[in-house]
């Protein structure tokens, strides 16, 4: 039986429409939820850079109104990863975005962003139709919809794999002495092929709590 397991050499990242306009709407009365979301997106960008994961990022037009990444996340954005402004809700409807996803040359895609029931849903269905294995980072999703459960269930029924950022991180590193956010364990072995780990990284167990929506 084939079991979906995250493999570092197989994984790419798709970040969809993490823009101030949508975040202001989604978290208008929930500063705690916004902080939990932003902390996870910061750490997703950090780990993407550190692990040299390929990534594609999108922004919904018009960016003059919706903005691009919030400053806090822009400061963490890994260099050299492609960014696109899109018109279609589903990323894969844009040939240039689908082309950059294909150019990552990864069969697994971790998906984060907004909005769960619109752009994330349609992009995830497009990825699945194209044959990718999709890991939906549920704690890295946001939406103005108070009840996104049907959208999540639809994606999971279609074949997306439920996941969280913490789960993804631990699958990427695989074992205790390859876990750089615990320095005493990390230093027990040499890791010559890895970049220096970000000093501002917070262990996943210390991130602010998030509220599942399904």
Give the distance, in angstroms, between the N- and C-terminal Cα atoms.
27 Å
Number of helices: 9
DSSP strand tally: 6
Which radius of gyration do the C-alpha atoms yield? 17 Å
The CATH architecture can be named as 3-Layer(aba) Sandwich
CATH topology: Rossmann fold
Largest sheet: 6 strands, parallel
In the sheet with the most strands, the strands line up as: 3-2-1-4-5-6
CATH class: Alpha Beta
**Which segments are poorly predicted (pLDDT under 50) over 5 or more consecutive residues?**
none
What proportion strand? 15-25%
Summarize it.
The protein has 214 residues and is α/β, with parallel strands linked by helices.
Note down, in words, how this protein is organized.
This protein is α/β, with parallel strands linked by helices. The chain has one domain: Rossmann fold (3-Layer(aba) Sandwich). Helix content is 38%, strand content 17%. It has 9 helices and 6 strands. It has a 6-stranded parallel sheet, sandwiched between helices. Helix 6 packs parallel to helix 7. The relative contact order is 0.18.
Defining key terms:
single chain, Rossmann fold, 6-stranded parallel beta sheet, 9 helices, 38% helix
Note the topology.
Blueprint: E1 11-16, H1 20-26, H2 31-50, E2 55-60, H3 63-66, H4 71-74, E3 83-86, H5 95-103, E4 108-114, H6 116-129, E5 133-142, H7 149-158, E6 161-163, H8 165-173, H9 183-186
Helix pairs in contact: 6-7
């Amino acid at each position: 039986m084939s079991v979906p397991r995250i493999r570092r050499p197989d994984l790419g990242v798709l970040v969809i429409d993490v823009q101030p306009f949508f975040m202001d709407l989604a978290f208008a009365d929930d500063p705690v939820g916004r902080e939990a979301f932003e902390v996870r997106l910061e750490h997703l960008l950090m780990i993407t850079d550190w692990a040299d994961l390929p990534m594609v990022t999108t922004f919904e037009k018009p960016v003059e109104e919706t903005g691009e990444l919030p400053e806090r996340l822009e400061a963490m954005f890994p260099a050299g990863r492609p960014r696109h402004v899109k018109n279609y809700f589903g990323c894969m409807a844009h040939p240039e975005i689908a082309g950059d996803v294909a150019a990552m040359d990864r069969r697994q895609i971790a998906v984060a962003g907004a909005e769960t029931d619109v752009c994330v849903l349609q992009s995830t269905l497009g990825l699945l139709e194209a044959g990718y294995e999709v890991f939906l980072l549920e704690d890295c999703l946001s939406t103005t919809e108070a009840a996104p459960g049907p959208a999540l269930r639809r994606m999971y029924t279609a074949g997306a794999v439920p996941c969280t950022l913490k789960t993804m991180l631990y699958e990427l590193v695989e074992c205790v002495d390859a876990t750089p956010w615990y320095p005493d364990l990390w230093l027990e072995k040499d890791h010559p092929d890895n970049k220096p780990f970000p000093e501002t990284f917070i262990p996943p167990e210390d991130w602010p709590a998030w509220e599942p929506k399904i």
